[in-house]
Input
Amino acid sequence: MIAAVPEGAGPYLALAILTFALHALAIGFVVAGTAVVALAAARGRADAPIAAATRDWLPFALGLGITAGVAPLLFVQLLYQPRFYTANLLLFVRWLAIVPALIVGFYALYLGKTARVHAWSRRRRAALDLVALVGFVFVGWSWIENHALALASPTTWAAQYQAASLRYADPAIAPRLVLWLGAAAAVWPAGVLVIMRPSASAARGLAAVATVGVAVAIAGGAWWAGAVEGPTAASTLATPWLIAAAVLSMLAVALWWWAARRGGGLRAAIVGATAGAMLAWAVAREASRVTAIDPRLAARVAAAGGVVTFVVSLAIGAAAITWCLRLVRRAAPPT
Amino acid sequence: MFDPSTLPPIYPVNEFGPLMRGLAIGAVGILHVFLAQFAIGGGILLTYLQWRAGRGDPLARRFIASFFRYLVLTSFVAGAVTGVAMWLMTIQVGARTIGLMVDHFHWLWATEWVCFAVEVVAGYTFLRLGDRLADPLRLRLLALYTVAAIGSLFWINGILAWQLTPGAWAASHDLWAGFFNPSFFPSLGYRLIVAMTLAALVGILVVGRLDLTRDERHRLISTIARLLVPMLAMPLFGLWFLAVIPPDSRAWLTGGSVAMSMSLAIAGGATALIAAYAVGGLVVRGLYASGATAALLLALAFAATAAGELVREGARKPYTIRGVLYSNAIAPDEVARLRRVGSVADDPYPLRDAARYPNPQVALGARVYRAQCSACHTLHGANALVELMGGWGLDQQRLNVAQLQRTKGFMPPFAGTAAEVEAVVQLVRWERAGGDLAEVVWPVSDDPRTLAQIQAWLDEAGPEAAGRRAP
Output
């Protein structure tokens, strides 16, 4: 994959991958977490410790996910600028609809935490959560569709434009959606380990969710690798990273069940393996389109400067965020 | 030798029905700026009040908890998501412009993102833990939030100001010369005061919802109103801004363009009204302000913000990036070539409604309109070409399109062939005659003498923007 990266694209690609992985971890927690709280609400178990803790942290996780997502949005504009902009324009209002979907989902999560909604019937609470969930899945689907359309040929773009179609059909869309939904289901249990210390029986339930999530993600990844073809040489470049992601995901599952048998522990290892798997999924995602990086990137950014400013600000920002997280740990350790 | 691989990308063009594209981005942009500036001012207000709380002001502490919830629910949610919307909408209305900005300033944009990330984490940390922390720690957390929020404004302000006044960057392409451009400091100062004003007005609104006695409310309002005092410096920053923008931009704002002058008048007038009440009434005379009054002032502030953003956007015309890119995403140094080969010769996107046009010339006009005019005009909606040009005579239409930069100085030069000028004129005339609904026979207008006359008009005006033609 590295050999296929055009000159000057390396730093942007690395930052795009790292920040996207961070974004995907937070959003994975949100998507699967919203499904969990919807299910818990429908079953009248909204106050169960894990569901309650998840609901409590969902708005923050979404805020973190959106914030983290702004960075890869910036780097994608550098790496794939003509393709990314063209796909944005072709999907037009359908693409712009992700904004109201996010706003509605965001407020639904906040609303779900209020005392007033707490007093609602099971059905109404679950319906509110489902509204948010549908919105988030719509956003994910739209991103995948945009990604696929950006990789299409100019002839396809012209036809898409002429047809004024706001949907784009591509064999890679469904498997990728399956992959990310599975990855989300695998991330949420790890997120629960970060925000609380689940009981032994709850940990077994979390392990089961993580196992199903990983199985779905791997199935989606295999389907995707088989479905993708064409000038981006996607399968050749992405397959090693898909395998790495699958291995790390299975390692996370093994750690989950080992911890369940031991009655707890291994939190850092499970969270680390899950994050590592997400990072590998993110690398596979970029590897599949690395040959689509704008060949004029180096020329376009030749006059750009400010990298030292960014590095210094990143160091200061990381220190400030670490201080905040320490404050949280000290004031409110996971219970 | 001409190398097609060096051509800029040509993007598909969308239209927003009766809305011109500028209105679409304006609507999202104004909302986002309003929310984002509130978030910054909110941080300043909270830090100030926390400082007071640490010195034994119990009212300040009660206010902080309530206000912060509003700040989170508006700025962290709607503010953050409309920030994403700004990216997406900017791509819709000016893909090439935002692409150039990203190409030049991406590391500073990434720095701005770091500030935003710190702002969000500090804000949420305060939201979750604020009531469990001691005063000094609360003050530090709020100060961190505020510094990060101001940092975010600092970086984005430099990039936006560069669009209007690139300054020494135009010659050197030095990043910092572009960032600390002539309008950087007046814009930053103005925006910071706006931020404090918005936060103070929302603060007064929130006070009305707190369970306090009238006397307690009055004291709290008097405290919050101190953030309105810097409004007295707004004329200074406004005049500074006017002094450093290009002379032609200043001319549009000060009478050259009715729409822009009115926007400036609304921004200035609404701001003056708020300042008069806030400083004269609340601070000097110590008046009480009800929630209704605060809401009214906030509505005025929204009008001022909207008009101010229109001024900032309008002042850039005919450019989106001064001297680099015209508002229709054509670069000044591309005009001469496009006048030879045609503005749509490289456009790979077909018309979506090709069948409705009566002949190939009108269809060409539709493609030229899409490429060159639709950024700021519609055919029948806002700023409609059919209405703007409809009353002109035929030769007047040809002359005015061929010499666009002379017709109105804030328009870019026409970047196409004489045949394309005629095609646009025929499109507008056909649309005015009823278009496909009128079912009229529309002959092709291809008299060589007409085209030669148009070419002469094009040559006479030259390919440069108004006021930029070489002597």
In short: Chain A has a mean pLDDT of 92. DSSP finds 13 helices and no strands in chain A. Residues 305-335 of chain A form one domain.
